[in-house]
Amino acid sequence: MTRLKNPTQTVEIGIIGKYVELHDAYKSIVEALIHAGAENRCKVNVKWIHSETIKTENAAELFLGLNGMIVAPGFGHRGMRGKILAAKYARENNVPYLGICLGMQVAVIEFARNVLKLEDADSSEMNHKTAHPVIDLMEEQKGITDFGGTMRLGAYECKIIDENSKVYKAYNKLTIFERHRHRYEFNENYREQFIKAGMVPTGINPETDLVEIIEIPKHKWFVGVQFHPEYRSTVLNPHPVFVDFIKNSIVEEK
């Protein structure tokens, strides 16, 4: 409580999503940021940025002054272009980035288009005709889409496969359990291309080999998680991913 009431620093965090006019849609994320801020003795100021307002010509202005960026989860293609521009800005400008669920997928699509030069890269959820479905329907879902499919729901095990990774430094353990709510996943067929270009999987489901976490090692802090860490954060137990995200968003005084 003392840490919460007596912050010693302030950070500006942008939350990018298509429901930002309805702040309660991201209430769990905001609460997780408050918890992480308290852990770092830091006040977190949130800047709400509607993804549909982000254009190539105004992105730099919208993101000016942000110490960190979160691309929020969601479904559907609305606002995708703005989310991709947000991931691109964070990657190119070394701004700490946390992509949650769709926010991870957005980072993968942006990297595929602008680094791997796969111009048509997309999620098959948004564009089923894409030549490069870097995000694709899970194999077990493909036969039941006509019936609405089923989501991957609940807690699943994830193995952190690199002890030098940012997420290992956050969790300080190799086995974690996190909650999921999605149907689409990183496409395994592109894994080696991403690794060679500098975006690496650092968290893997041990049973299915599905990629659960990606990051860019050369970036200050660029992490995408397929799960929802915000669901597990509490005042007494701030989620380690949010804590480390805020820690790396704090600007060191010169």
**What does the radius of gyration come to?**
17 Å
CATH superfamily: Class I glutamine amidotransferase (GATase) domain
How large is the share of residues in beta strands?
A: 25-35%
Regarding quaternary structure, what we see is single chain
Number of strands: 12
Proportion of residues in helical segments: 25-40%
Can you tell me the number of structural domains? 1
The first-level CATH class is given as Alpha Beta
CATH topology: Rossmann fold
Biggest β-sheet, characterized? 9 strands, mixed
Number of distinct helices: 8
Query: Structural class given helices, strands, pairing?
Result: alpha/beta
User: Could you state the order of secondary-structure elements as H and E?
Assistant: HEHEHEHEHEEEHEEHEEEH
- Give the overall silhouette: globular
The CA-CA distance between the termini, in Å, is 29 Å
Low-confidence stretches: 143-149
Strand order of the largest sheet: 2-1-3-4-12-11-10-7-8
In the CATH classification, which architecture applies?
Answer: 3-Layer(aba) Sandwich
